[in-house]
Design brief:
The chain is of the alpha/beta class and 746 residues long. It is built from 30 helices and 23 strands.
């Protein structure tokens, strides 16, 4: 195959094969002014660190803005600025920078600028200078600051022209100072610098490196303050732009038109967006920018706007709904701090003495320690095999699967971010429910999981659902769900471990269903990182509607321990607890961090064209553990994700059809459907409302087998689909043998 050079680098009009480091030569030049359409944090980390001074101007890499003109450009850039604020893009960019670059930014040695609303930049030129010798280099062309733009392995053509000590340098420098500089504004708001400075002041007893790490991990209140400062800066830029004459006098009228585009008849608003919540909030923020005076719409004063946006960008105070609610263990994740050479996983725990100090979490285990940890898991599964009734290896694999989920839990938000589309993210559940029966050991399993993934000693293993809030709490049931919702929106990635979730949580839509659906739908736009939920419940009480089942993971743990081995099983369980520690977990987080850093890591791994196996990286890491200790994968090792939620629902309806309710299923030969009088399930029962048996069974039905609306007195079922779903031979198929050939035609 003919080799094609996609990146055409010319030095003094002659082709050269220079590397990026040669082009941006830090040995020869110590200052850089760069104007680019877009830039990646990775490029900055690799090539732009250690200059004496850098000023980087970043355009707006969005096609709709590049296509907009005049007044439309003002509207487009205001909406874009608001959406960037809502999605915390500047904070994400800052967070993905290495510590030395962050420090350069904080020291004002590295300055990032963007065009103010009303302007767009598509230029790409770079000015390098040696402040001592006066030597200069100007780079012009089509390349943005990304590895892809300078890499011939990508089928993307770029032109890069370099000239040293050329008159062109002065021309471009003058153009930058006179034309571009007046319309630029800070990419990172001043509030960020104030917050970091204050935090550092409180951490003066720490080493500089520890100071920087602790001071640049922002909590929810920090984030909201920074967002509000960004909005205030946008308003100031609009007002100043009008007063300086670089924006038209009717800018207020133009911005006021944005809220009209939000109406249901607006094709732009109805268009599907990647993040509808961020899009919606960007419109709402724009409406806060405008005030009415003398029948004119003007840009409001900053104090006025600040008061308005407080309601839109509230500090997410994850407050406890009762003073007696215990503090959760704190585990913080910051992807930019991953440093495998320094054995840092990006996870941090609070110092037990100085709560403001964050300590890296993670430590590589020796081969012998890994062997012992795997032996403990093996010991656990052998106990299940020895002491539970009707145990099989597939059941053991479900126990192991729960352990794999718990190990993965701190990274569940990372996996969801890599999942791609919103639909694919739903295949990465933030919730794991372990369904068992009395004496099946589900609480004991939760305690073992807690010990395996502990981040501190002397931490309570898990919470009991009934005691999350104290007795006497007003509206205790709904407030318990609210407390869980609050915790699940924190940036604390340590999983919520909750025991004995009652059946009412699942049957009442305002409890479990809303918690699962609402949290899953909104958390990604609210938090970069967030925790997973692991809870146990009675398998008979578990049921969720399809939309909540899709967003959660259910594992059956329902085989009971044999009473005749009760004493032996208790002794064996206590031995397991004595063996367990978090050695393997601390090793695992470093190996998972290594996968995060791997640009070639495959995140979307589908099973048989179905759902994403969101645990496939964890399975791979655990499989590598067995290779390291030269052991084969045990027969109970889970090699795929399970669908116990679906199987549980099928089992409910299979028992219903084959049991005493069979007489209430009426077959319609003409339509090949079953009519089931579901209201009969509520007869002779004391349960009402969302606890009605009919509600439980409706929620368990697959939409694929229902004809029409399942909410009526009678539920109409597609007979062939229903019998296939419950895995029962269709007893009516022989009654209409020609239908599959002729259908209902006459």
């Amino acid at each position: 195959m003919t080799e094609i050079k996609t990146t055409n680098v010319l030095y003094e009009n002659q082709p050269v094969t220079w590397s990026i480091r040669q082009i941006f030569d830090k040995e020869k030049y110590d200052t850089l002014v760069g104007v680019t359409y877009s830039v990646s944090p990775k490029f900055v980390n690799q090539y732009l660190e250690s200059f004496k001074q850098v000023t980087l101007v970043v355009g707006i890499p969005e096609g709709s803005i590049q296509a907009a003109t005049n007044e439309e450009l003002i509207k487009a850039t205001v909406k874009y600025a608001n959406k960037q604020t809502v999605k915390k893009e500047s904070l994400k960019f800052f967070g993905n920078l290495r510590a030395p670059v962050k420090q350069e930014i904080l020291d004002r040695k590295f300055v990032m600028k963007v065009p103010q609303p009303g302007y767009s930049i598509h230029s790409k030129f770079y000015l390098l200078e040696n402040s001592q010798t006066g030597q200069t280099r100007v780079i012009v062309g089509s390349a943005n600051l990304s590895n892809q733009a300078f890499d011939n392995n990508f089928n993307q053509f770029e032109e890069v022209l370099l000239y040293d000590n050329s008159p062109l340098y002065e021309v471009m420098e003058k153009h930058y100072k006179q034309d571009l500089a007046p319309i630029l504004t800070d990419y990172l708001p001043q509030e960020l610098f104030k917050i970091v400075k204050k935090k550092k002041k409180d951490l003066q007893d720490l080493q500089p490196e520890d100071q920087l790490v602790s001071a640049t991990i922002f909590d929810d209140q920090d984030v909201t303050q920074i967002q509000q400062a960004e909005v205030a800066a946008t308003v100031d830029n609009l007002k100043n732009g009008v007063s300086l004459g670089i924006l038209p006098e009717n800018t207020g009228e133009v911005v006021n038109q944005i809220q009209d585009e939000k109406s249901p008849t607006s094709s732009e608003y109805q268009r599907k967006h990647e993040d509808q919540n961020a899009e919606k909030l960007s419109y709402e923020l724009a409406s806060d920018f405008v005030t009415s005076r003398n029948n004119k719409h003007l840009i409001a004063a900053q104090p006025t706007v600040k008061k308005r946006v407080v309601k839109r960008l509230q500090v997410k105070r994850i407050e406890k709904v009762a003073d007696t609610v215990a503090e959760r263990p704190s585990l913080v994740f910051d992807e930019s701090t991953i440093d495998l050479l320094a054995k840092k996983s990006g996870l941090f725990v609070q110092d037990t003495v100085n709560k403001k100090k964050l300590i890296p979490f993670g430590k590589y285990a020796t081969t012998e320690q890994i062997r012992r940890s795997l032996a403990t898991i093996n010991h656990l599964l052998k106990n299940y095999e020895q002491f539970t009734i009707k145990y099989d290896s597939d059941y053991g694999a479900r126990v192991y699967e729960a352990i794999l989920y718990a190990f993965t839990a701190p990274f569940i938000s990372v996996i969801r971010h890599h999942a791609g589309s919103e639909e694919e993210q739903k295949d990465v559940p933030q919730f794991l429910f372990i369904g068992g029966t009395a004496n099946s050991g589900k609480s004991s399993l939760l305690r073992i999981i807690s010990r395996m993934t502990a981040i501190h000693q002397n931490v309570t293993d898990f919470m009991d659902y009934s005691t999350i809030l104290p007795e006497g709490t007003h509206n205790k049931k709904s407030q318990t769900v609210q407390q869980l919702s609050n915790w699940l929106q924190e940036s604390n990635v340590y999983p919520l471990l909750v025991d004995e979730i009652p059946g009412e949580f699942f049957s009442k839509s305002s409890y479990g269903e809303n918690l699962v659906v609402n949290t899953t739908n909104t958390v990604d736009s609210q938090q970069e990182n967030y925790p997973a939920f692991i809870g146990t419940t009675n398998s008979d009480g578990y049921t969720l509607p399809e939309r909540a089942r899709r967003r959660s993971y259910y594992l059956k743990n329902d085989k009971v321990f044999d009473d005749k081995y009760k004493q032996e099983s208790v002794i064996a369980y206590n031995q397991i607890l004595a063996e367990i520690d978090n050695t393997l977990f601390k090793d695992f987080v470093l190996r998972f961090a290594d996968r995060i850093e791997d640009e070639n890591q495959q995140w979307e791994y589908y099973e048989n064209g179905g759902k994403i196996d969101f645990l496939h990286i964890t399975r791979d890491i655990f499989a590598s553990y067995y290779e390291m200790v030269d052991e084969a994968l045990p027969i109970f090792f889970p090699e795929h994700r399970y669908d116990d939620s679906q199987e549980s629902s099928q089992e409910k309806w299979r028992k219903l059809y084959l049991g005493s309710s069979n007489e209430y299923f009426k077959y319609n030969k003409e339509t090949d459907t079953l009519i089931f009088k579901i209201s009969t399930l509520d007869e002779n029962t004391s349960r009402f409302g969302d606890n009605r048996p009919s509600k439980v069974y409706r929620d368990a039905l697959s939409p694929k087998v229902v004809n029409g609306n399942p909410e009526g007195v009678d539920v109409e079922l597609d007979a062939p689909a229903f019998f296939e779903w419950i895995n029962v031979k269709n007893p009516y198929i022989s009654r209409n043998p020609f239908k599959k050939f002729f259908g209902n035609s006459k």
